[in-house]
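Thread title: Can someone regenerate the structure for this chain?

I was given the following input by a collaborator and told the matching C-alpha cells would be attached. They weren't. Posting the sequence so someone can regenerate them.
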Amino acid sequence: MARFTPLEWPVLRQFRTGDATGRGPSVTSERTRTMRPRTEDADRVAQSVCPYCAVGCGQLVYAKDDKVIQIEGDPDSPVSRGRLCPKGAASEQLVNSTGRQTTVLYRAPKAKDWQSLDLDTAMDMIADRFLEARRNHWEDVDEAGRPLNRTMGIASLGGATLDNEENYLIKKLFTAAGSVQIENQARI
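Best answer:
Regenerated them for you:
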C-alpha cells in the first residue's frame, strides 16, 4: 500500500494542476487513469442484431480466442444508434452462461430420457417430418372445387427473440411451403 501524503489531497492537486473547476485530472484517481477498455484485447469484432425483441438493435460482438468477451451497442445501427436496453446489454451473459445448451437433444416418442444427436441428423429429421406433414395434409381444392393449394399440417409460431429479418424469412418459407397458419408472439 502506498504511503499517504497530504500533497495528493484532491484540493491540493486541483491547485497544483491548475484545474480550477475540479472536474479534470486533479480529481481523477490513479485507478481511473490506468483503466483500459474491455474490448481492447478482442481478436475480432462482428456486427450482430440483439436477439431479444423485434426492434432489431445493432450490436458489436467482441471475441477473443473464439469466446465472446463483450457485447455493446453498434453506433452505426440506424435502429438503435449505439444504445441497448438492459436485456440487450446483458446478452453477453446469455452467450457465456454455464447453463446454455450447446448440443442437440432428442427425446423419442414415449421415451423418458433425452439423447444427444449430431446437428446433421437432427436437421434431416426435421426436414423429413416437415415434408411428410405437408404431403399428408395438402389441400388442392375445397368442397366447391375452388383452388386452395395449402397445407393445414404445418404451422409456425415465431418468438420475440427473432429479429425482423429472421421473421421475414420464416414467413416467406412457410408461405412458399403452402402453410397459412403463421403467427408471431409479438403480434399476439
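The longest helix spans residues 119-136.
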